[in-house]
Amino acid sequence: MQELHDAPLAPLTTFRLGGPATRLVTATTDAEVVAALREADDTGTPLLLIGGGSNLVIGDKGFEGTALVIATKGFALDGTRLELAAGEVWTDAVARTVEAGLAGVECLAGIPGSAGATPIQNVGAYGQEVSSTITEVIAYDRRTRMTVTIPNADCAFSYRHSRFKADPERFVVLRVRFELEDADGLSGPLKYAETARTLGVDPGERVALDAARDTVLKLRAGKGMVLDPEDHDTWSAGSFFTNPILTEAEFAAFRARVSERLGPDAEPPAYPAGEGRTKTSAAWLIDKAGFTKGYGTGPARISTKHTLALTNRGGATTEDLLALAREVVAGVRDAFGITLVNEPVTVGVSLSEGPEPPQ
């Protein structure tokens, strides 16, 4: 294992923000990951896990403890069964499944980060979620100090959530297993209207796998959601806020606020979310609350391509970013009575309370 001290963390995140870690360890095998975890647990050392760094907001003071970079490699394909090591670059793995003619994750192309993070967030985009193809997650259980295999049914997947996210101190993902589909070179049925429309087909139809992947990549790039070091719109964590899911009463109150603010003919985006709940669009809320593309005057601003992405224009601090995020949250709450929730994980800071107290 590689070990560094007083190591900068900002270069390991897509935001390029955050102070140093007391100690930085890079693990390239499952055994090294487990050894680092056991050492931290045995000594009571605070531990920060880093994969692709695409979902992290690290405080300017950094992290007092051990930051563990999971850099494991492994892509094993057996028929339609795929096993990925946690450190595999996700978008590269998607490309290889498309090249192999297998459907199931093609619309998740271009999402930054590592394979091990996908079950934690139940990563999804353009009508697909990893929960629909994951069969098992192999993880180290810090409570029992054993490596365990957790079947899909026990992962408690929901919208951008899982048991791993609900109990982040317990499980560390080592490998993820998927069951993909051999549809003779065709994609899965397209569920996202924008993707189908761009491809000139109806929702529910299938297209060539590479056409689906390429279309998603173009759509994401147009929104600044494909990493490009030269494009500050991609110095972000992608979607900074999750789409709110509302009860019937909450949605009725929301519609009333929309009518009051935007006129009686205005209708907010609404998508069924099960059990009498409705999902609406965080990007729509942000825009209609007055935070348009490119909003901001400092080094942290809303993306010029997509209102859901907060970006570092260069030279920003984490507090610059959080000040912008808090302004957006307050503005949306005042306008529509909905409190947005951040999607990235915060380390040493809190969106609602500023710097966290020392642990």
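Next protein, fold it too.
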Amino acid sequence: MTETERAVDDADDADDAERAREQGGGQGRSTPVRRRWVRDEFGVLLVLGSLIAGIGIPYPDFLGTDNLLSTAHNSVYISLMACGMVFALSMREVDLSVGGTYAMCLVVGALLIRDGTAPWLAVPVMLVTGIVLGVFNALVTTLLALPSFIVTLGTLMLFRGVGLALADGKQITDLPLDDSFFTFAGGDPGGVPFALWVLLAVIVVLAVVLSRTRFGARVRAIGSNPDAAAFSGIPVVRTRIQALALSGLTTACAATLALAFYGAGDPTLGQGYELQAIAACIIGGTPLAGGRGSVVGAVAGAMILSVVASGLVFFEVPINWTSFATGGVILVAVAADSALRRTGRRRR
């Protein structure tokens, strides 16, 4: 076993021991982990449930299956971006370029399909494009020794500009919408949008990766104390590249599903998505200070934003007040979750 592996194992053992002490110890590793999950995600899930109930009581139509599925589907793209963003934020990085990455991957896929590439064969190209853009962010951040915030702010505009140039500033249409890629991946197999099935799979996989794998442990260790992580031999640069590549991959996945659903490549899509993805992560309990994160919480945060947007329609709130209401709900959600966490710590 290398020194790096020992350092990560020691960090994991210490973390598990601390969790066990918080829960009274003597009950094994699995029980504290399960209880910690409930404690960490309970606040944001409670806020989500309260919002749904608060809208559904005066407007029962909001609780209809079709409306709930539509609301959940509307959150898929931000949710996928947030799933990858959790890893970046957990290690004190940030990826502001996801909006540009989303648009560029969408345009690349649409151009390939329009020019004769089979839609399903365009999918891996889109995913690889997202990974390459994420690696590019990491390499620039590392080589220039600049904060990822600054680098990805620049690449946000760079990637979106490339997408606009490739699309000649116009929506890319004339795609074979009768292909199975559009009818299946953009449809509702089993009565549930295909995008929601993909999101569920991503949640399960990335939640396990963050909490139960060596890569996830390295991400959390670097976020907790970058200097100590580097001193202990953890490959900080390699982990940064992997985390930002993962952010690019989940964003490309969102772009792929959007292309299948909308049936066109619009280079203007994704504006403001980066801030919504970060907001979803923070609402879900991933702090900007790093050291921990929650994939489930990030998705719940994205769902909250979608529920608010849908609820405003039922309450007939003028569209000019949409941003104001969304911002207010974000502040309330974060404050409520923080209060629940403080209450839990006082009880222990």
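About the second fold: The two ends are 36 Å apart (CA to CA).
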